[in-house]
Amino acid sequence: MNVSEEKTAVDKAQEYYDSNSADEFYFKIWGGEHIHVGIYNHPAESIKEASPRIVHKMAKKLNIDEKTKVLDLGSGYGGAARYLAKTYNCEVTCLNLSETQNEKNENFNKQHEVDDLITIVEGNFEAIPFPDSSYDVIWSQDAIVHSSDRQKVVQEVDRVLKDDGDFIFTDLMQTYDCPQDVLKPVLDRIHLDSLGSFGFYVEQARKLGIQSAQVFDLSNHLTTHYRRVKEETQRRYDEMVETCGKEYIDKMIQGLDHWVDAGNEDYLSWGIIHLSKGEVA
Ligand SMILES: C[S@@+](CC[C@H](N)C(=O)[O-])C[C@H]1O[C@@H](n2cnc3c(N)ncnc32)[C@H](O)[C@@H]1O
């Protein structure tokens, strides 16, 4: 991939998340602090209840304490960073290209009195602006999907992660045998050409000589989540049209339908990938 293509993918993600309509939509419909797939205890549960569960599940897989330095890639409104800082009293750096989201993140951190533990940096995770071996844990939720060079992102993570560090992330992915043409309507919603897969990330880890790669397939929650987002958008249709505009909301509902359909066909995957550079017990 050449440099101009890389710029296009990053620019598109930035434009997408910085727009007023997207900010209002994600903030209001997703429930405020989180913009990722949730873990649902029952199919009609609220997005706000389901969203934090994945953060808790990921955190439990790590040994974080007050000395752990965490980097969150594509940190959105900083929901995970605040949870980690409050729970473990650890330092978290949020790297995110959306200025709009970073401002909200900063305000929340002040309100929650964790701004001394959380640093927000505007930047691109395809070229992480930090030195080699500087973090114990690199964390990311449903963000690497936006890259057109996911191999580069994993290489950058490997560079910035300490020798015994952990990289834990979730991503919106495709199943490995999914026919490519069926994904076009799904990808159009997020302006992308392709998705990663569990197999792709495990292969990248092997190429980098990473000791352990664990996969936790939680794909069943993906379809529930997108169905719940669609239902919530329809339930608050008039309010959302007033905030984001009719064209944006109608297109969003159509796009969400494509994600639900592809999920029902088992074309999409979602779950936790935990790569450990150090020895695993
Ligand atoms: C679906 S949101 C997830 C936000 C957050 N991780 C969460 O779970 O609430 C995707 C995030 O990735 C960020 N992002 C996308 N491409 C990025 C890039 N190349 N560098 C840094 N951040 C990026 C967006 O700004 C957005 O915050």
Description of the molecule:
This protein is α/β, with parallel strands linked by helices. It has one domain (3-275): Rossmann fold, CATH 3.40.50.150. It has helices spanning 3-18, 20-29, 47-60, 79-88, 99-111, 150-160, 184-189, 198-207, 220-235, 237-244, 246-264; strands at residues 69-73, 91-96, 118-122, 135-141, 161-174, 212-217, 268-276. A seven-stranded mixed beta sheet has the order 3-2-1-4-5-7-6, with helices on both faces. The longest helix has 19 residues, at 246-264. The model is unreliable at 1-6 (pLDDT under 50). The structure holds S-adenosylmethionine (SAM). Residues 10, 13, 17, 34-36, 74-76, 79, 95-98, 101, 124-126, 141-143, 146-147 line the site of S-adenosylmethionine.
Q: Helix-strand pattern, N to C?
A: HHHEHEHEEHEHHEHHHE
Spatial strand arrangement across the major sheet: 3-2-1-4-5-7-6
Instruction: Please state the overall shape, judged from the principal axes of the Cα atoms.
Output: globular
Fill in the CATH topology.
Rossmann fold
Bound molecules: S-adenosylmethionine
Structure characteristics:
Rossmann fold, binds S-adenosylmethionine, seven-stranded mixed β-sheet, 11 helices, alpha/beta
